[in-house]
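This follows on from our talk about sequence and fold. Please put the record directly below this note.
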Amino acid sequence: MRYRRDLEIWTSGRGAGVLVLGRGLAGRREVSFEVDPARRNRGLGRLLVAAARHLTPPGEPLFAQVAPGNVASLRVVAAAGFRPVGAEVLFHRGGPDPG
């Protein structure tokens, strides 16, 4: 919540997945999603991310931040039509994130 504002949250049936849209760094519209581990590998993540594209106003860029090592999420966002545009690192002044 410290780095996001204007959050909108949707859940899929029976709590199998969660979709979050909000404003992130530099006011960018960002999407995040989570799928219950017991419900993974059935296409729900791809449906959630695709829904985010339809919930975003036409012409407005939508960003998904995915850690490079998270291969499953990288595959999901690629399947939903996202393209990699770069990488970023957030540094905190004065050392580690105070939490």
